[in-house]
Amino acid sequence: MAEAGPGLEVLAGRSAQVGTLPVRRVLPTRGHRTIGAWCFIDHMGPTTLRAGDGMAVPPHPHTGLQTVTWLFEGAALHRDSLGSEQLIRPGQLNLMTAGAGIAHSEEDPDGSGGTVHGMQLWVAQPATTRSAGSSFEHLTDLPRVHLNHGTATVLVGRFDGALSPARRDTDHAGVELDLRRGTTVVPLDPAYEHGLVVASGTLTVAGTTLAPGAVAHLGTGADELALTADGAVIALLIGGVPFPEEVSMWWNFVARTRDELSDAYRDWVDGSDRFGPVTSPLARVAVGPPPWLGGG
Length: 296
Hints:
Blueprint: E1 2-3, E2 8-12, E3 14-18, E4 21-27, E5 38-49, E6 56-62, E7 65-73, E8 76-80, E9 85-88, E10 93-97, E11 102-107, E12 114-124, E13 135-139, E14 144-147, E15 150-156, E16 158-159, E17 162-163, E18 172-179, E19 182-187, E20 193-200, E21 203-205, E22 208-210, E23 214-218, E24 224-229, E25 233-240, E26 248-250, E27 253-255, H1 258-269
Antiparallel strand pairs: 1-2, 2-23, 3-4, 4-5, 5-12, 6-11, 7-10, 7-12, 8-9, 8-11, 10-13, 14-15, 15-18, 16-17, 18-25, 19-24, 20-23, 20-25, 21-22, 21-24, 26-27
């Protein structure tokens, strides 16, 4: 953890592998489990996959969260246990709400491989919806805000007066910043804590350089943030009212207790109707038990 000016921390992520994709996992970290209701960020790629060896994230389950999938390059095919089959491209949003349980896969659309670069983020659902039904939405027309040195696309929530049509169950927001050389002052909601993740290029924030592979965290109370780019930069700005519930996470499940996580694990292993089947050429993911049930 490195201090980067008053109230700003830069927290390093770690490398991981999801199916065929190398990722930088920048949330959760030891310093912060959540930023608002945002509880997970995987920065996927950029990587170039050979034909026949493209994106292949087999059917796997989720509970108690929303997946927010956003691509900068490439394409992916989403399939889920609701029967959804949706191609996603850069500038389009896939938002899947798990509720009590859903399963999905993410696949190469046509077997041609190619470059893949994007982010998948999770939003913890509150008590009011986390045990309810699941849903999926695909949005292609998202609001854009012109900045003095770039453009902001509002994925979820509200930013500078623009409101995304995407579902949200808590008071949170997610924005893509497409910046060019210069200093851009972005407005912030002082009720939110915020996170900033660079996808490409570098930004100087409060005297510290932020590059891919880390998240900059800013606590509540700030109403703006100055970002200086020395070239083209793409970043995601996330924020939200601090999440009031204690979150317990294991594998692909977001819950409140270990007992809930254990139940979700057993339901997946046992093939319960809770998650349902995904029509996919990929075999469903097998997983061992969590540590408290004797797993590694």
